[in-house]
Each structure stands twice: as structure tokens, then as C-alpha cells.
Amino acid sequence: MLVITAAAALIAGCKTPTDGEGKVAEATAPARDRSRVFVTVDFEQGRTLRYRIASRRAVTLDWDPNAPAAKNRVEHRQEQMETIVAYAPVEVDPYGVSTLRATVESISASRSGGPVARSQGVDAVESARGKSFLLRVDARGRIVDVNELRSLVQEMGENAFQTGARGGRIKNPDMIGDFVAGVWFLWDGAATIPLPAEGLAIGQTWTSQLSVPTPMVMRKARDVTYRFNGIRSGPRGAAAVIEGTYALADSTPADWPVPYSGRFRVAGTFGFLGPYEALSLEGMGEELYNIQAGRLEQRRQTYTMQIQASVPPMGIEAHPHITIEQTLIAELLEEQNGKSEIRSSKSETISKAPNPNDRN
């Protein structure tokens, strides 16, 4: 949840504005508030929110862009992951920290193209199926306690390694980074609004950073500039439209989860290649937040990333080039239990804060 501004408005209204001669001046704050939109991320006791979170990645590997055209010079690969995560409120505090229990109800991953015959069984990300973890979310929508989620990511990372492998630890390809990109940053667009109590004006921008999942072991981030584009009507009501523009970041936050530890080798083509140099990243995204219900309804992010790879010193002079076309999606599913729609006046008073947009 973001900071609800009703209390701030009441405090500001306790003092009558005056001019320099002690006369009552025109109160301009309410008019300014009416032109702004307050984006919230709210939870209600007894109402579980289910999100479909998906990742699709098309990878083009050109073994040597400077070489003459050849039959096997360019390879095309596809990877995709999809999960449904249910967020059930355990304890709701509209003005403080709420506790949610998130459950991975289903998850699947698949890949095609390239040397498919060398694929190593079930993707480690699928080991999260049926697992639950607690999240604590503060009044701004920021996840302030991710200890159990971090532990789940590390547990998935352990499952990515081959058992009984000779010659040291060998990690199979996995889509754990795609799971992190979807779950860890689910509410980032709203949670990073710098002054949520002031609301958003059309055209207002702010910045953050998001992760970059890749088929190779590469810890990169993308800078995102968010922009509030106004209100769009939808089947569930009016939604705030937040646009995102992406670019390659110079650094990566140290506190983001790391699935693996220790020394290891990576199986497959992307273990053979390396080191890697990220050349560029460009893309855009859009998020829709229901301003009355106070929840993310839909998010879609797309970007293109260019990477240059090296080959081991084997007497081969080649400079492989990799293009990644990435799509990340999150969408709120329709409620399956009609009873969750029923709210008593008592539970509404306890678990639902006043919506500042009602004043507009």
C-alpha cells in the first residue's frame, strides 16, 4: 500500500491560510489535489489476489556477424515461463506494514531451438511449485521483508545443479531470473513514486531499476523512467496508466537475490561462450493500476538487448553476437471465489483505508 493522503489533507486543513495582513487567503491545495491521481496498492483481509506472471524470450545467436553467410551461422532459440502466484493477506495495516502469504500455485518453463537434445530435464524454476513465502509490504507498496522469497530463490538455485556430475559443479539452464523479474518487482511502478502523498500529475516522471533475466549467467539491471500518462477506463473501473522506458544500467543493486553461490560451470552453449558484454538495451512497458480498488491489474514490459560474447581460446577467431527479444507480463486474474467479494462493513472499516481519489 502507498501512503494514503487523507490524514495529510486533514492535518494541512487544521490551519486557515492567511496573507501577510492576516486576512484569509484563498485555499489552493484542494484544487491542486483534485487535478492529481493517487495510486495505491491495497490489500483486504479475506481477499486473495492471483496474478499470472509470464516471461517469453526469443534469442538469436549469430556465431560471427563478420563472417560470410553460412547455413549454421545463426541460431534461433525460444524460452518461456509462466506461473500463477496467489497473494493472501495474513495481516492488513492500511497505514503500516501488511503481511501477505504468497503461494506458487502453478509454474512451468520450456525452451526450444538450438541444441534441444542436450536439454537437462525439468527447469529448476519449477521446483517452486506449491511453495509459499511471506512478504511484508510497507505503506508505500515497497516489499520490506523478502527473507522467505530470497530463501526460495536460493533453494531453486540449488536445484539447478546436476547431481553426480564429474569435474565439479555444473549448472543447467534455468529461468529463475524470470521468476524474480516477475515476483520481486511486481509493484515497482507504484512503490517507487517519490512523493505518493502528493498524488500524480499527468506527465510526471520518476526513476527506478529493474532486473534483466537472460539465458546466461549475467547480473545486469535496466534503468526505468516511469511516466504517468493519465486515466484509462476498463471493465473493472478507471485505471492509472504508468508508462516505462528502459535503458541499460551502469550498475546492479547489491541486495537483489542471487540464486547461486560458489564456483561452478554452466552447461550448454551459453556456458561454452563467455565472458559477455552487454552492448545496449532499449524498450518500453505499461502498467495499469485500478485507482478505486487500489491494485495492479496489468503490466507488460518489452525490450531488446544486444550482447557480445567471446569464445574460448581454441584458435577460432569469432565474435558471437546475441540479440534477446524479451517480454514480461503480469495480469490480475478474475476472482474464482465469489464469497471473497462479500465484505462486511466492519471488515471494510478495519482493512480498507479511505481512497483519496474519492475526493476528486
Describe this structure in words.
The protein is 13% helix and 37% strand. The chain has 7 helices and 13 strands. The strands form 2 sheets. An 11-stranded antiparallel sheet has the order 5-4-3-2-1-13-12-11-9-8-7. The protein has a two-stranded parallel ribbon with strand order 6-10. A hairpin with a 6-residue loop joins β2 (74-91) and β3 (98-113).
Q: How many beta-strand elements?
A: 13
Structural class of the helix and strand makeup?
mainly beta
Number of separate helices: 7
Low-pLDDT residue spans = 1-32, 338-352
Spell out the key features of this protein.
11-stranded antiparallel beta sheet, 37% strand, mainly beta, 13% helix, two-stranded parallel sheet, 7 helices, disordered N terminus, 360 residues
